[in-house]
Design goal:
The complex is a heterodimer of chains A (about 475) and B (about 300). Chain A folds into two domains: about 375 residues, no CATH class; about 60 residues, 2-Layer Sandwich (Dna Ligase, domain 1), CATH 3.30.1490. Chain A has 15 helices and 22 strands. In chain A, helix 2 packs across helix 6 and helix 3 packs across helix 12. Chain A has about 475 residues and is an alpha+beta fold. In chain A, a hairpin with a 5-residue loop joins strand 4 and strand 5. Chain A is globular and about 65 Å long. In chain A, the strands form six sheets. Chain A has a five-stranded mixed sheet. Chain B is mainly α. Chain B has one domain. Chain B is globular, with a radius of gyration of 19 Å. The chains are: A alpha+beta (about 475), B mainly alpha (about 300). Chains A and B meet through helix 2, helix 9, strand 7 and strand 9 of A and helix 1, helix 4 and helix 5 of B.
């Protein structure tokens, strides 16, 4: 929203105008109303470390983030391209492995990845679709170019906040929507259901779809229940499922009922104690065998976590070139791979200026932000990088784009990122917008909800609205 | 419908009914204690004991009985558990139903720290009654009459029946241990009020408050929705409907609820009093608990 000179971009003119008409009291009252609505709807997440009140409302900032139609078109095209390439990569890596033979990626990086699943080798899910739902994290650099920060091809969460906050914002700040043609996001759940039904094993006409949750204590439980409700399908836990005659069934009051597609919101490790972690009680014994026998579809497929591996991430532009013969529309953030001797030396020499990340961690954990850290931490991460090179990468510290955010009643610039949601059914589709996460602490670069982040609504403007009209 | 979901619906119905009964009972007891505290400390103690017995709760101070969410049997505990069950079945109940119970839960939490404030107490008790009434209205006006609705209602009627039977037992025992006749009158009125029957009783009964008539009303009044007979008949009818919906279950559940209903339909107040009211009520409770367990093993534990 801020222009290069620090002022407000013309695109936001109408919004700023509308907001200034409210006056401080009216605005504060409306904001309280927003918070209350979100709480009453139960839009919450769970914090494990905090025993006082384990259910928290994810802090919501009412100032929306605006994206023009042109900006969005580019993002959308880039995400579709990236998702297509990642699925071809998964099919290859669990199949012929041409990309390794052609020496595009070092085999060690694949086999050393903690999310590579040997159990998937030689199996192709229906339609060759591995990632039915992807959430890709984007940031804007200081020139305003969108860069891909990381891929989330396992179980990206957060879409319920996008849908929930839009509903509430429309109710309380309807006036802000005037003059802007904001593209709707409500179709997400229909698209999700379509993608799930399309993923059904071959020959199934009317598939029974379920959402599989680890249960009420999971931090994203609200979302699981929300999506099940929106799609109109049962929300099941592992204990509701049982294998009978090789088929996956759920226990109902009328006896067992067959399940064809499972939108699973539990990690690979917990899916099936027979194949993965033997101590897991969250999944269902025999589930994986049923999956490989084409009796049921798991969405996303097991083994997609390899795409989230931060040591694989630097190769995605190469994959796009290799599989699609195109240049990546959305560039990556430059990345140094500690497993490469030359890169490692660079990381060790420049750690004060870099962001160092653990390759198989997420949620802002296992991470060093060089410029914001201490000498002791630098030394600690140098040791980690030296001793576990496969587990670390580093990137230059990017100054994230800032966006006006309400802090104690005043507008201040705070760092934001963007997570759009990509659905892969019959074709690949992206809901316009996504989750804009904001680092609420002054100067912080970490936007994760588990670490003091909040979120905003993201408005993609329809092409009829041009920015001059909106800013007049 | 998933067995686990049916189970949650049943318990959600029960916890909400329990919360309602508790809020009403505590409102009544608070009123009575105001009257008794000075002139009759002995009677006040007996009243409090009867309250605890009819609610089946441990001997906690009134503030804790209302606000302490760490105890399962308190009002805050019941609301919390109803909400917890609701959270697990949000995809089958109406959204407004969830919002209502969620709001109630947060109200109790926000009232923490004002436990000794008389107004806060009054506010929570009356808000609970409004919540459960709204909830009932939403259940009937926004849910289609499928399995989800039936399990919710079954939980409700079964819980109500148990609560009324326990209230009646506690009051009959309290009655037996007091001598004065003014006391007796207080106890009978308290019994009517605790099940929310005082107004209906006055409309339907020709004479003044009388021990036998009150008992007859609370146990057997066929047209009043908070009499034992009424609850049993509703529950029995629901299990009949349910068995038509779900092919899986055999007729055992229906028979168990039918037995409970026919015991209450074919009994006469004078015979009950002659044979001992408390033993009769305990048999009713045993029937109800057997029927409840059978319901759970037939539908929930597949």
């Amino acid at each position: 929203m801020f222009a290069a000179g620090g002022g407000i971009r013309p695109l936001y003119g109408a919004l700023a105008q509308r907001m200034s008409e409210f006056g401080a009291n009216e605005f504060a009252a409306r904001q309280r109303k927003v918070d209350l609505l979100l709480r009453n709807q139960g839009v919450t997440f769970t914090v494990y470390s905090d025993s006082a009140g384990i259910e928290k409302v994810f802090p919501f900032d009412p100032i929306p983030r605006l994206l023009t139609a042109e900006e969005w078109t580019r993002v959308e095209r880039g995400l579709i391209q990236r998702t297509e390439a990642l699925n071809l990569f998964l099919r290859d890596i669990y199949g012929a492995q041409r990309i390794l033979e052609d020496k595009i990626i070092e085999p060690e990086l694949i086999y050393g990845a903690s999310f590579y699943r040997r159990e998937m080798v030689g199996f192709v899910p229906p339609g060759g679709v591995y990632t039915h739902v992807v959430g890709t994290d984007l940031i804007r650099d200081k020139d305003g170019t969108f860069l891909v920060l990381e891929d989330n091809a396992r179980n990206p969460s957060g879409v319920s906040y996008v849908l929930g906050c839009r509903e509430v914002l429309k109710r309380v700040f309807r006036v802000l929507f005037e003059q802007y043609g904001v593209r709707p996001v409500e179709q997400y759940s229909d698209w999700l259901r379509e993608a799930m039904e399309f993923a059904a094993p071959e020959g199934i006409q009317e598939p029974n779809v379920v959402v599989l949750t680890p249960g009420i204590f999971n931090s994203a439980y609200f979302e699981h229940s929300f999506l099940a409700r929106q799609m109109g399908v049962p929300l099941v836990e592992g204990r509701d499922l049982v294998i009978e005659d090789g088929n996956v069934c759920m226990r109902t009051i009328e006896g067992l009922k067959r399940v064809h597609v499972i939108y699973r919101r539990i990690d690979d490790d917990f899916l099936d104690p027979v194949v993965f972690r033997p101590d897991s009680v969250l999944g269902c014994p025999g589930l994986f065998a049923a999956y490989r026998g084409n009796k049921v579809t798991l969405a996303n497929a097991p083994g997609t976590g390899i795409c989230d591996d931060k040591a694989i991430y630097p190769f995605v532009p190469d994959m796009i070139r290799y599989y699609l013969g195109e240049d990546a529309i959305l560039p990556n953030v430059p990345t140094y791979i500690a497993a490469r001797p030359h890169d490692q030396k660079y990381i060790l020499d420049n750690i004060e200026d870099l962001v160092v990340k653990q390759t198989d961690a997420s949620g802002g954990y296992g991470m060093l932000i060089g410029p914001h850290s201490t000498k002791e931490k630098h030394a600690e991460f140098r040791d980690l990088v030296r001793n576990h090179p496969r587990s670390y990468i580093a990137q230059p510290t990017i100054s994230l784009g800032k966006h006006p955010t309400l802090c104690d009643g005043k507008l201040e610039g705070r760092c934001v990122d963007l997570r759009p949601y990509i659905l892969y059914g019959e074709r690949i589709r992206v809901i316009p917008g996504g989750l804009t996460r904001v680092a609420l602490k002054k100067g912080s670069l970490v936007v994760n909800s588990s670490q003091g982040g909040g979120y905003k609504d993201t408005w993609v403007l329809s092409s009829e609205t041009n920015s001059t009209e909106a800013s007049s | 419908m998933l067995s686990r979901v049916a189970d949650s619906l049943f318990w959600m119905g029960r916890y909400l009914e329990r919360a309602e009964q508790m809020a009403r009972q505590l409102e009544v007891t608070r009123d009575i204690l105001v009257d008794l505290a000075e002139p009759d400390p002995e009677g006040a103690r007996a009243e409090w004991q009867a309250t605890l017995a009819s609610l089946c709760v441990p001997n906690l101070a009134l503030e804790r009985l209302v606000f302490d969410a760490t105890e399962q049997s308190t009002l805050a505990g019941c609301i919390g558990q109803a909400r917890e069950n609701a959270r697990q079945v949000r995809e089958v109940i109406a959204n407004e139903m969830w919002e209502r119970i969620n709001q109630s839960h947060w109200s109790v939490i926000e009232a923490r720290g004002q436990e000794h404030d008389e107004t806060a107490m009054t506010q929570i008790l009356s808000e609970t009654l409004t919540t459960t009434a709204t909830w009932d209205g939403l259940t009937d006006s926004s849910m289609h009459r499928g399995e989800a609705w039936m399990f919710l209602k079954l939980g409700k009627w079964l819980e109500r029946l148990e609560r009324i039977a326990r209230t009646a037992i506690a009051r009959v025992q309290q009655d037996a241990s007091t001598q004065s006749s003014t006391q007796e009158n207080i106890i009978s009125i308290a019994m009517l009020k605790s099940v929310g029957a005082i107004e209906a009783y006055r409309k339907l009964s020709p004479t003044q408050v009388d021990r036998r008539l009150v008992l007859d009303f609370v146990l057997f009044q066929p047209s009043f929705p908070r009499s034992l007979r009424f609850c049993a008949l509703q529950a029995s009818e629901l299990t009949q409907q349910l068995s038509r919906f779900c092919r899986g279950a055999d007729g055992a559940v229906g028979r168990a609820f039918g037995r409970l209903a026919s015991r209450l339909e074919n009994s006469d107040i004078d015979e009950v009093i002659d044979g001992g009211t408390v033993p009769f009520l305990k048999e009713v409770l045993a029937d109800a608990s057997r029927a409840g367990l059978l319901l759970q093993s037939s539908y929930f534990l597949q």
